[in-house]
């Protein structure tokens, strides 16, 4: 490895930071400084969210999140987890925080959001990176789906919940695969993939290279978090994750009562005192808002059911164990083999990931990293009574072992043997099967990323079921056209546009159907959870399941589909899919410069792909065709020669509009192209910034 170097930050042609530190702690300080320079507004917003202090900067619109953050004890959980870290990890995380604090003022000076809002950056605490990581993943798990299923049970009956057992709005769409190497020929494996999440601006991942005398690793970092938790290439070994779709968060129904200033909670052993205090949330332009924070033996109370009056508490492994798994991050950077990675990730807690690992010697492993509690199966489906002993966590977690892989390995949030017993809401199998077919046909990994073909699934079968003789001529012609279509959601395809128009009409008509209308009963939960509990959106997400099973609820799906077909046919020609499927980056919208840049982005690119394509540029059928979730990175890790690896992100290295690297990767990303990874010799003298 390197034995000498000049500490500092260098950048490649795309502005990607390459960091050299003479010690691990010095490197961590540089990574923190680089995050602050490039993403000052982004990381400060995430810190404010972790602390429940966003409304103080941006006003009443952010009060809903702040209430949740305070009630869920995010900052307290982060601080507890930090205190439990090993001394070496605490020093490393603290060094990162020192770097953030050293760079924030300079980074904020170039970020227009600070000037537009009159905000100034603050000081990060040693535990702030853990809080940022919690913010990014607390709603990434399964508990909001349980709120939705409880609503379905209450309005349509328990038999209907299975129709919605599919990844919801917080799900993934992520892909990862390994093409095996040939050790005899000196060719190592190729590990490739593309995580799919909300398309935040700036992007949720930051390309970075971290080098010191102990290791030289490049990958995708979370701005505000040290190391490379999810995707990295260390030269000898590489790793990548997808969401395992495991169920590790539980919601409990709680009965509370007040007695002499105390709050009591019903338990299996009677009424017990709950921990309770009041916090005050400052709100810009409005009065301070008090929020009552209550914690039961199950966990913090995050909401209440507006129909039953019951409180709802949240139990997660990170709070139970006072551990997020950050002690795994330094060993991960030091890994040299697949076994090293597997050993490092034994200490991971949450979120629960499927991990693919490959090394230069041809070793390939698939493993599950994270803690999945063993408890009653009902806990996986809906909020359960906290006062019934049967729903207590056992104190044990599911045992998972690394699986040695021979041949091609694919993970796409699908139900596989290694994860099937860990969750409920898996993605349909099409993406995984399609990736295998493409690789078997010799399609290179960088082309697999951008495949736009839909499965011949339940919706296509529904068209086949319609009686053409019962359709008007225009609807009959549209049906014939859609059945002949090749299923590719290409940006320039008017057939894909017509398909999307019919799908939207079908979802809206199902939403209006008398048998499904009870779902539109007024919301039971906080507006923060609306993306998971909005009936129109959930019907759109679960359309395949509904098409195959809504007949059991008394819905004549074929009749609804025929009416939707007639509606679209009567509306005239649909535009091409790319004209409907517009890029919609998620951002706070506080600075005109950023709004202008986003508007320009939409005009610069035309997007293909769809939720169930390998290119999972997601929209919400029935709600909008705008793309707000998709591949937040793409990578091809070459284990023979790292310099041949490639990657790309949706926007760029910088979070500052006007910077040359704010969105310079967008055209490449939209076209399915990748850029080279930085792999220059950092031991040579240079001009670090």
TrEMBL record:
Tell me the protein family, please.
Belongs to the peptidase S45 family.
**Gene Ontology biological-process annotations:** antibiotic biosynthetic process
This protein is called: Penicillin amidase
Q: What species is this protein from? A: Micromonospora chersina
| MF (Gene Ontology) | hydrolase activity, acting on carbon-nitrogen (but not peptide) bonds, in linear amides; metal ion binding
Which residues catalyse the reaction?
A: 174 (nucleophile)
Keywords, A to Z, come to:
Calcium, Hydrolase, Metal-binding, Zymogen
Cofactor(s) named in the record: Ca(2+)
The record's listing under InterPro entries reads: Ntn_hydrolases_N (IPR029055), Pen/GL7ACA/AHL_acylase (IPR014395), Penicillin_amidase_A-knob (IPR043147), Penicillin_amidase_dom1 (IPR023343), Penicillin_amidase_N_B-knob (IPR043146), S45 (IPR002692)
Residues annotated for Ca(2+) binding in this entry? 247, 250, 421
**How many and how are cofactors bound here?**
Binds 1 Ca(2+) ion per dimer.
């Amino acid at each position: 490895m390197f034995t000498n170097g000049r500490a500092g930050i260098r950048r490649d042609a795309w502005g990607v930071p390459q960091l050299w530190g003479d010690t691990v702690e010095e490197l961590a300080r540089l990574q923190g400084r680089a995050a602050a320079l490039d993403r000052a507004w982004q990381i400060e917003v995430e810190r404010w969210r972790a602390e429940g202090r966003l409304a103080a900067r941006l006003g009443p619109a952010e009060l809903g999140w702040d209430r949740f953050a305070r009630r869920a004890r995010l900052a307290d959980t982060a601080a507890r987890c930090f205190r439990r870290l090993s001394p070496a990890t605490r020093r490393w995380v603290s060094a990162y925080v020192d770097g953030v604090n050293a760079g924030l003022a300079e980074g904020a000076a170039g970020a227009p959001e600070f000037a537009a809002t009159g905000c100034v950056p603050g000081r990060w605490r040693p535990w702030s990176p853990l809080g940022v990581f919690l913010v990014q993943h607390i709603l990434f798990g399964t508990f909001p789906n349980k709120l939705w299923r409880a609503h379905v049970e209450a309005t349509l009956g328990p038999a209907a919940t299975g129709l919605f057992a599919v990844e919801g709005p917080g799900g993934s769409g992520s892909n990862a695969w390994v093409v095996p190497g040939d050790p005899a020929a000196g060719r190592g494996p190729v590990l490739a993939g593309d995580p799919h999440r909300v398309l935040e601006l700036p992007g949720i991942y930051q390309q970075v290279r971290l080098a010191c005398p102990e290791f030289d690793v490049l990958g995708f970092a979370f701005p505000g978090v040290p190391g490379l938790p999810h995707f990295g290439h260390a030269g000898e070994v590489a790793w990548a994750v997808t969401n395992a779709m495991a169920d590790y968060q539980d919601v409990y129904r709680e009965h509370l009562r007040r007695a002499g200033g105390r709050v009591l909670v019903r338990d299996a052993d009677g009424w017990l005192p709950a921990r309770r205090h009041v916090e005050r949330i400052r709100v810009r332009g409005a009065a301070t808002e008090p929020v009552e924070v209550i914690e039961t033996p199950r966990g913090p109370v995050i909401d209440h059911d507006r129909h039953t009056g019951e409180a709802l508490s949240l139990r997660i492994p990170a709070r139970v164990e006072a551990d997020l798994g950050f002690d795994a991050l330094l060993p991960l950077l030091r890994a040299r083999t697949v076994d090293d990675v597997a050993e490092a990730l034994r200490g991971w807690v949450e979120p629960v990931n499927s991990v693919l690992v490959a090394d230069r010697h041809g070793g390939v492993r698939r493993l599950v990293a994270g803690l999945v509690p063993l408890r009653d199966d009902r806990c996986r489906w809906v909020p359960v009574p906290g006062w019934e002993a049967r729903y207590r966590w056992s104190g044990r977690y599911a045992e998972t072992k690394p699986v040695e892989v021979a041949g091609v390995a694919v993970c796409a949030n699908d139900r596989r043997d290694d994860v099937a017993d860990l969750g409920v809401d898996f993605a349909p199998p099409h993406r995984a099967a399609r990736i295998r077919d493409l690789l078997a046909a010799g399609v290179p990994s960088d082309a697999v990323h951008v495949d736009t073909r839909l499965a011949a699934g339940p919706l296509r079968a529904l068209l086949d079921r319609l009686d053409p003789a019962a359709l008007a001529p225009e609807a009959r012609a549209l049906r014939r056209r859609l059945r002949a279509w090749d299923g590719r959601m290409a940006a320039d395809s008017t057939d894909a546009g017509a398909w999307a128009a019919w799908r939207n009409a079908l979802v809206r008509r199902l939403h209006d159907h008398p048998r499904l209308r009870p779902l539109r009963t007024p919301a039971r939960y906080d507006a923060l959870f609306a993306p998971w509990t909005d009936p129109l959106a959930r019907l759109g997400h679960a359309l395949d399941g509904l098409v195959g099973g809504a007949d059991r609820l008394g819905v004549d799906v074929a009749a609804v589909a025929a009416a939707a077909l007639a509606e679209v046919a009567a509306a005239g020609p649909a535009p091409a899919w790319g004209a409907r499927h517009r890029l919609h980056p998620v951002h706070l919208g506080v600075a005109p410069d950023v709004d202008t840049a986003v508007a320009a982005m939409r005009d610069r690119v035309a997007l293909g792909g769809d939720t169930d394509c390998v290119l999972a540029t997601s929209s919400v059928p029935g709600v909008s065709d705008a793309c707000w979730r998709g591949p937040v990175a793409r990578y091809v890790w070459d284990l023979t020669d790292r310099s041949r690896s490639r990657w790309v992100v949706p926007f760029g290295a910088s979070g500052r509009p006007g910077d040359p690297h704010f969105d310079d990767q967008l055209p490449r990303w939209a076209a399915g192209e990748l850029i080279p990874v930085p792999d220059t010799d950092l031991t040579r003298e240079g001009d670090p910034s």
